[in-house]
Amino acid sequence: MDTRPDRRRWLAWGLAQAWAVPMAGALGSLGLRHDSARAEPLAPVPPALLLARPAGPDLDVSSHLVSEKLDGVRAFWSGRQLLLRSGIPIRAPADFTARLPTRALDGELWLGRSRFDAMSALIRREHSADDPLWREVRYAVFELPDAPGDFAQRHRAMRELLPGTDAVAGAHVVQQRRLDDRQELDRWLAEVIAAGGEGLMLHRADAPYVTGRSDWLLKLKPQLDAEAMVIGHLPGKGRHAGRLGALRVRTPDGREFALGSGLSDAERDDPPAPGRWVTYRYRGLTNSGLPRFATFWRMHDLP
After folding, report:
1. Average pLDDT by consecutive 10-residue portion of the chain (303 residues)?
2. Where is the signal peptide (predicted)?
3. CATH 3.30.470.30, domain 48-220, yes or no
């Protein structure tokens, strides 16, 4: 299991390293100042994007357009280039981007449910553009940056701009639904999760186009929990040096992973002994069956 706290931040970091050398070489070929002993990669400029807040219990469902939350890689199309949230260019094939319009789009590069690992690995490859897996990638568009009107109007404009469907690879507009109440919302959420999806996104139908984290866009994801047995202690680093860094745990079906997030200072100073059972929370499973974003919740006493 990838024990880094945020795979998307790690993906952005890895891509920044991959682009550093080509960037420096390009500067030299243009005759610009390039000191190999002091060369530093050019910092990418992140695009300004709308980011979601978690949905709360008091939610007027009928005022939102609702779509499935896609477990892919966020991608901004500038009209000329695909960019990650960090601003790092995505090495997409020319025939993939040739299908896109010359105006800005915001969406998700997606291979399908439970295939985030494959999508992120594709983006990280040095020769990503040559990979035949791009034929399966869909660019699921959910926003039209800087377009006039509210979100419902922008969604109609997106459908006119990209009339394709999600049944084929390439660009398409994410389908939006209007739901009447929380009960209907929870039913659809349960269906999406049962089918291997990640959750739902709720976009206020009357929302203007804004950027940054905002209540105009909400995300609804379940938090699952399960039990595992402690089988070891991993030493801490940094501010946790000299005490517990993470618990090594094993699930009832024999899968092992490190559980570090969610532990209090007191639990790190006096951790549960090997053989004890703990309850952890997580958000779905990876392709290998390990829990995603697992966090320690509490001790669990088996009956």
Report:
1. 44 47 38 45 84 88 97 94 94 92 96 90 90 95 95 96 72 95 95 91 97 94 86 93 96 95 94 94 85 89 46
2. none
3. yes
Domain ranges of the chain: 48-220, 224-300
Angle between helices 7-29 and 116-124 (to 10 degrees): 20
State both tokens at 170: 């390439």
Residue 241, both tokens = 């040096």
Q: Structurally, what CATH architecture does the domain formed by 224-300 represent?
A: Beta Barrel (2.40)
For CA atoms 185, 188, 190, 193, give the dihedral sign. negative
CB 155 within 8 A of CB 165: no
